[in-house]
Amino acid sequence: MAPTPATIGANNDAIDDDPAVPDEPIKSTAWCFWAPFAREAESELEQLKPRKAMANLNWISLLADMLAGTRVFWLAPGLFVAAQLAAFAWTGGEESFFGMVTGGVVESLSLDTGAIMRWHMFSASAMWALGAVQFLARRWRQGAWAPLHRGLGRLFLGLWFAVAGPSAFYLSLYSGTGPSNAQVAMTAFSVVSMETTVLAFYYFWKGWRVAVRRRLGAETWRLHKKAMGAGLVFTMTILFQRFCQLILIACRKAVVVLAEAGPGSWTRVRWVAEALASGPLDHNVNLALSTCWFGAALLLLLDGPRSRFFVLALELDPKTAEELFGDEGPGAWELGLWRGRLLLYLAMRGYVTKCWTIDPNPKQMGLF
């Protein structure tokens, strides 16, 4: 006999009243979409086991150890800061080092973002100086010196969260396209720069929480050092990028000088030199290439800090991973934000460039 509406209702009532069949909450479509990914990420930490083949991935942990125990490592940020301050003094406070060597095209204080750039330059320099003290002055971490270590740590984080970090994100978002209107290249630069800034924010915040909660005893401070070291590493990616950029700037200068020094019959050589100088070796393209060739890989890690790569890079076991991240596994919203961050970066860049039609950081005045 075919079921009637009455029998269907009766059957449903019987199921609802049966204590052996508990009611299940209705889940939203968003949760149904993200649930498989959340379960996968939750089980990832549980299944995590040290593997010799992956031992070379613990580079963040190794860099954190270098920050804490190798004074030579701090020469790189020291030289970079010295070059910036020397250029600032040489030009009477009107230009940065890379603004000088690019003729005011890239990272220049003469652009619309010049005021923000000044704040960032000095706050980041002070933050790195404090970071050097925090990592190298080991005796200040314990005993009578511990309050000083904590105070300097709060000042370090205050500089980042109040000035250096927000200004870094702003400068990344509003990076100019230059005379050649390099929209594609500078969008790539903007996205990668925003990514490294967000990761620095994330690890500094998590490192601070680990130190405040102190749930792992002595292991707390090792985990705190790793998290703070990871944040510093992401702020220092600019050092490697600037070195690569300086090489490209030198190549561009060599091409231009050789073409200009040649005889008048070198018309084709000059044409090629001009094409290179305004194309692949353009200052803004150089900036993007020197940033994206290594930084773009970060965007391939869909789960951000929750990805296996970062877990291995920090040498986290399930216990320390739970303490650092604050839970056993990421929720649906957290995974959704990490996996959708590229679209968010692109949307923000599209907004400030009015759908990639304008330079968001035009030059207002020039020194050269």
From TrEMBL:
<keyword id="KW-1133">Transmembrane helix</keyword>
<keyword id="KW-0812">Transmembrane</keyword>
<feature type="transmembrane region" description="Helical">
    <location>
        <begin position="119"/>
        <end position="140"/>
    </location>
</feature>
<protein>
    <recommendedName>
        <fullName>Transmembrane protein</fullName>
    </recommendedName>
</protein>
<feature type="region of interest" description="Disordered">
    <location>
        <begin position="1"/>
        <end position="20"/>
    </location>
</feature>
<feature type="transmembrane region" description="Helical">
    <location>
        <begin position="184"/>
        <end position="205"/>
    </location>
</feature>
<dbReference type="InterPro" id="IPR018750">
    <property type="entry name" value="DUF2306_membrane"/>
</dbReference>
<feature type="transmembrane region" description="Helical">
    <location>
        <begin position="72"/>
        <end position="90"/>
    </location>
</feature>
<dbReference type="Pfam" id="PF10067">
    <property type="entry name" value="DUF2306"/>
</dbReference>
<feature type="transmembrane region" description="Helical">
    <location>
        <begin position="152"/>
        <end position="172"/>
    </location>
</feature>
<keyword id="KW-0472">Membrane</keyword>
